[in-house]
Amino acid sequence: MEKVVDHPKLLLYAVLLCACLSLMGCQRSEAPSPTPPAPQRIEVPVTVEVTRIITQQIVVEATPTPPQACRPESLDQAEEIRIGAIVPLSKPGAARYGFSMQAALTIAATDVNDSGGIQGKPVRLITYDSAGIPERAAQYAQRLITQDCVSAIVGIFHSNVGMAVAQVAHTFGIPLVVAEARADEITAQTLPEVFRIGPTNSMVGRWPAEWMASTGDRNGDGRLLAVLLAENSTYGQILDERLRQWLPQFGIETQTLPVDLPADDFTSVIARIVAMDTLPDAIFLLVQGESALNLAQQLLGAGIGPQRQTVLVMNSVALNSPLFWQRVPEGTGTVVARVGAWESTVGEMGRAFAGKYRQYFDTWPEGYAFTAYDSLRLVADALNRATTPAGDDLIRALEESDVELAGGHYYFPYGRANPPDGETVPAYMWHQWPDYPLLFLQYTEAGQDAAAMPIIWPEKYRTEEAPASR
């Protein structure tokens, strides 16, 4: 028999199954979203550049003490007294002059020590070669003051060297006695430490002008006229310019005639003098060496000279009297310019120095040799009188100098107590010896020895009225 299925019951089962499945599907769709997982920590490597630090030991030194003068503050502290000198002893400096100055300084130091030194203490001379270079001289000046412990500096030939050393001396308060450097400015700066016993440029420039003005119109033509025969060299040019600067200031006319050297025949220049409307009162021969002697004889041979009331003025070459009379036999009446002490101006010390100097050079000492010798003797004299060798005491003693030395009688009328006013008294007269012997001598007899020549100017040193021949 066939089995019969009950469809209503089966349908009920099917409906219930769908309901359950539907319910399950609804529950799943309405369930909340799951919580997202926590973010992971990711470490990214970072490279950092660090400046390297180096630890180093640094030693900071104290500021160095400026150099100081090391001269003794009292003579009791010193075993010897040191005096410094600066002179030119090599090129490009004027070594020939420097050797003469060094010889004179050496003689002076020996003479001081032979006479007992300075208050019983021996003198030691320390010399440096400037070579004529200001910077080098300034360095040596500081070395003398701060290392060699000198009480003073002497010497000095070149003006630019003198200016440089003067500043160093002033900085350290050490006296400087200038023997030869001529620039007015060296003393015109009025530095307390700086003294000069050689002539200034202005003193040398005024010298022939003042002499000509004092002798007046020789030939009576109503004019004062000087002819300048200048050789074609630096020497001739410098002297020509100097005379043309100063002579007109004293009412003296000038005319320059060039002299071309080398030459033995001076006919052309002599002819120009002969052709002048008025002969000059003086003819200055600005010519060096034996050429000057040849020129003088040719002038005299042409009738130009004392016989026509014209005086010939020559330089120191004419002081070699044997050579002069050999080459200029008609030279009576010739005037000779001399810079520095001469045999008739010096005393016992000057003659003694000249004798010792001749052992070196077999000649009468040049002006700069006299002042080199006297610069050291002057310092020694001041140190003997000073309370102490310290700068200000020694400066005061130098200002009070009143002493006869080899080249003359030294004193300084203008200084701290009596400064020059710059108008009636030029500023260069500060600590300046006023009586430097700038001389005119004259041959008054044929064959006369130069040592016997009379001094005709200036009045302070005059031994005979001038001119002796007119």
TrEMBL record:
PROSITE patterns the UniProt entry points to: PROKAR_LIPOPROTEIN
Keyword Repeat: no
Key words, A-Z: Signal
Cross-referenced SUPFAM superfamilies: Periplasmic binding protein-like I
Top-level taxon in the UniProt lineage: Bacteria
InterPro entries: BCAA_transport (IPR051010), Leu-bd (IPR028081), Peripla_BP_I (IPR028082)
Occurrences of domain Leucine-binding protein (ranges): 80-411
Keyword field contains Signal: yes
Family annotation (Pfam families): Peripla_BP_6 (PF13458)
Family annotation (Gene3D superfamilies): 3.40.50.2300
PANTHER family associated with the record: LEUCINE-SPECIFIC-BINDING PROTEIN, PERIPLASMIC BINDING PROTEIN OF ABC TRANSPORTER FOR NATURAL AMINO ACIDS
Family: Belongs to the leucine-binding protein family.
Protein known as: ABC transporter substrate-binding protein
Organism whose genome encodes this protein: Litorilinea aerophila
Classification of source organism: Bacteria, Bacillati, Chloroflexota, Caldilineae, Caldilineales
